[in-house]
Write a structure and sequence with these properties.
about 15% strand, three-stranded antiparallel β-sheet, alpha/beta, 10 strands, binds 2-amino-2-deoxy-6-O-phosphono-alpha-D-glucopyranose, NagB/RpiA_transferase-like
């Protein structure tokens, strides 16, 4: 795991945007695992500008998102589908056939999750899996205690995560209590993983992760320690306790 402090939010976002852009530009059939969250907003802004500025052909790009709230209307502004359309898909003209998010209101969620996982296995591994991180070390919505061999499934959110994500909703009671998330094994089915961590709230978990030498099931991000190609990109605030 390689940690890099790139100073500002802008430069850290720029580094990640350029790495994704190069993959989209130069890999024959680019396959990306994508993430949401406040952390990614500037990165998607920069990535969209790069693609549009260079008139990049994205017709062969295919993406799978890490997670989605469960039982939230697809058109709800807080669904991750809405987030992705607004921040990235609609800006660059990615079509519905090209992007995938876990199903959020399915009648047979188990079957849909298995299908999502199977599609990833068939098309993968990802060229790059993009990740944010929760203050409790979660990746996707894999909360502390998640087995490292987990796959796409329905998960219960912790109080800590509901609290942290409440800022996007009108009332805390509106935050869904369940989500569908790729598992840790799904996330690791990737040639390269890039984690982006910005801001001082992420400093304690960054310091903890940096000093870990063995993975611990209570810190889901530490499951990445044995993956051969992981970069953790930080701004100075996220890195300041290291
Ligand atoms: C959510 C998402 C994660 C994301 C995390 C951090 O819980 N499921 O994928 O990494 O929050 O979000 P933010 O970037 O808003 O801090």
């Amino acid at each position: 795991m390689k940690f890099m402090n790139l100073g500002s939010r802008e430069l850290a976002s720029h580094y990640v945007a350029v790495e994704l852009f190069k993959t989209i530009q130069f890999n024959g059939d680019p396959l990306l695992g994508l993430a949401t969250g406040g952390t990614m907003e500037e990165m998607y802004e920069q990535l969209s500008s790069l693609i549009n500025h260079h008139h990049t052909d994205i017709s062969r790009l295919e993406t799978f998102n890490l997670d989605e709230y469960f039982n939230i209307d697809a058109n709800d502004p807080n669904s991750y589908r809405s987030y992705m359309k607004q921040q990235f898909f609609d800006k660059v003209g990615l079509t519905e056939a090209q992007y995938h998010l876990p199903d959020n209101d399915s009648v047979d969620v188990e079957a849909d999750n298995m299908h999502y996982e199977a599609m990833i296995r068939q098309k993968g591994p990802f060229d790059i899996q993009l990740l944010g991180i929760g203050i409790n070390g979660h990746i996707g919505f894999n909360e502390p205690g998640t087995p490292f061999d987990s796959q796409t499934r329905i998960v219960e959110l912790t109080e800590e995560t509901i609290e942290a994500n409440a800022r996007f909703f009108e009332r805390k009671e509106d935050v869904p209590v369940q989500a569908v998330s790729m598992g840790i094994e799904t996330i690791k089915y990737s040639n390269r993983i890039i984690m982006l961590a910005l801001g001082k709230k992420k400093a304690p978990i960054m310091a903890k992760l940096y000093h870990m030498t063995e993975s611990d099931i209570q810190v889901p991000a530490s499951s990445l320690l044995d993956h051969p190609h992981v970069e953790v990109i930080m701004d100075a605030e996220a890195a300041h306790l290291i």
